[in-house]
Structure to design on (261 residues):
């Protein structure tokens, strides 16, 4: 009929006759059943958020214009948008919870290591908060880029947050532990210079090496892998900058001198 769907009762009847006469019973059950019809919706590389909006528009149209018609959705086209909605609603709280948890764990680690220092040490409370700064900075930059470029927060991009926790915590721990060890014999500023010379090069080399390893993913034709390629590069660079600039500038302010008898 050169139409996407049959429009008249005769065309509908002819379509069912063709299904019954030319298709196997198993295929027929996938297409229709007594009292109902199954319509399959195919989509290409659109993000699942767009598919979810399309499904909601179809359900809204059926509810407003065909109130006597019962429409049920099923399959991956329904599952993926539902999962993405769950991710979007839970990711924001997850980000803030991760920030607090990292600060607390870093504070506990500083408190435990302060037992070895007799003259000066890093305040566990202020030091823990400062050690979470690289993660906060990296998450903020990635969030701003996703908002400006209209990149959806879905199953692929949500995993970037977990990788940010790993990279930022790795850099901040190495730098802070080196700085804390230098406090045993140096002043706060001298300890900072020592940590920069010793650990700064390692962080820069680690950042560049891992970024180069992720860059080839940008050439992938699979959109989620392509996004991981450039987002991981930006994430590693921002974690390194947050550690060597912001965290390094704040660490001397967290030093406490022990009271002498």
């Amino acid at each position: 009929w050169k139409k996407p769907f049959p429009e008249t009762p005769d065309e509908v009847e002819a379509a069912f006759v063709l299904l019954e006469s030319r298709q196997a019973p198993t295929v027929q059950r996938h297409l229709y059943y007594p009292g109902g019809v199954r319509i399959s919706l195919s989509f290409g590389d659109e993000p699942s958020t767009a598919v979810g909006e399309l499904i909601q528009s179809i359900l809204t149209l059926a509810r407003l214009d065909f109130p006597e018609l019962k429409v049920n959705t099923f399959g991956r086209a329904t599952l993926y948008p539902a999962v993405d909605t769950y991710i979007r609603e839970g990711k924001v709280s997850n980000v803030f919870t991760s920030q607090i948890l990292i600060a607390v764990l870093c504070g506990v680690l500083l408190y435990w290591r302060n037992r070895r220092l007799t003259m000066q040490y890093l305040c566990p409370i202020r030091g823990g908060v400062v050690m979470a700064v690289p993660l906060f900075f990296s998450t903020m930059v990635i969030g701003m880029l996703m908002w400006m470029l209209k990149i959806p927060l879905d199953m692929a991009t949500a995993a970037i947050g977990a990788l940010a926790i790993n990279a930022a915590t790795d850099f901040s721990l190495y730098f802070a532990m080196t700085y804390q060890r230098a406090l045993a014999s140096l002043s706060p500023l001298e300890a900072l210079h020592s940590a920069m010379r010793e650990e700064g090069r390692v962080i820069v080399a680690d950042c560049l090496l891992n970024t180069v390893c992720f860059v080839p993913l940008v050439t992938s034709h699979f959109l989620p892998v392509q996004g991981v390629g450039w987002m991981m590069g930006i994430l590693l660079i921002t974690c390194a900058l947050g550690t060597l600039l912001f965290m390094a500038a704040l660490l001397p302010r967290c030093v406490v001198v022990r009271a002498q008898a």
Summary: Strands lie at 32-33, 36-37, 120-122, 255-257.
